[in-house]
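Researcher: I'd like a structural prediction for the single chain below. Treat it as a standalone chain; there are no partners to consider.
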Amino acid sequence: MSPLRRFLCSALFLGATALGAAAPVSAPANPAGFAIHRGTNLSHWLSQDFGWAPREEWITENDIRYIASLGFDHVRLPVDEIVLWKEDGAPDEAAFALLDRALGWIRAAKLRVIVDLHSVRAHHFNAENEGGTNTLWTDPKAQEHFLDLWRQLSARLRHHPVDFLAYEIMNEPTAPDPEDWNKLVGRSLAQIRATEPSRVIVLGANMWQIPQMLPKLAVPAGDKNIILSMHTYAPLLLTHHKADWVDPVIRDYPGPVAYPGPIVDAATYAKLVAAYPKEKYDFLASSTDNWGPDRLRQEYEPAIARAKELGLQLYCGEFGCLPTVPRAARLAYYRDIVGVFEAAGMAWANWEYKGDFGLAEWHGLKSLDGAPDVQLIDALFQR
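Model: Treating it as a single chain, here is the predicted structure.
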């Protein structure tokens, strides 16, 4: 039995009383009563499934119960069109059955869930770095198809209570013009509201949901069953150190990196800037800043201010730092970022439960079930 599986069994054996008291739920910030505070992402399962393990084994009911036992109150559940729908557009009923089972596990564990349409065939958030093409913003048929996906999802999920399940319309849109995303948001919301007037909808800004773009998101006035969402992996040179799926300006730098303080020194920064064209500077621009809680708060301030202006809850649906970063720096980053979220009254979900950013020790594909990373979990819960 793997270390994580063994730990799951031990934790669950400790008793249902611990589980029942372990998932504190914040006061609802919306009329629907959908209250969230601390969560985690169920990645690489019904979305970005890389075949690391059989889908029926990657996430099980024991995993959901373990997540609740840690003190999380919700999960963000990414789903992909290519998983839930076949190439000809027909629903993959086996995948939908697994989604239905998962929602049953989540509700039984007294958690809440955000169903996030993570990618569709016409749009992937990392298309630029993975050789793909996004047609969603230029093809009216692709937009109609996107709306049809939500018609189908809503028809299948609308029976779930509004204080249990929320929808996230799309993960990390990358429209060249933010108005293109605003138009699709408006059409999607109108369609969902026609049959589900009280469902909580999570809305993220254009360009990977970075906090600086949230002021440009068109949010319908008077709809209080909306949660505003941002994602953050800043500073990218730290959090994605040696990642192989990002721009070469980040991917090819061998290190070292540091936190808190400047991620790299001035001399290293100068060499990096000299090696890449000017359009890549944005990935590096903050690398010599004095990173810590104050600089993190500065990064999120546009989103915090926008949520306050609209009187809506703010949610960071993704953040994380890879284990390629020196251990002490990585733990300090997690402790500081969650401290900033908590101080700002922001709900959050770390990326991710299982995977290289996950809550277990990561040993690569040679061992997908590492022991729980207790220090990382403690940093998330500010213990």
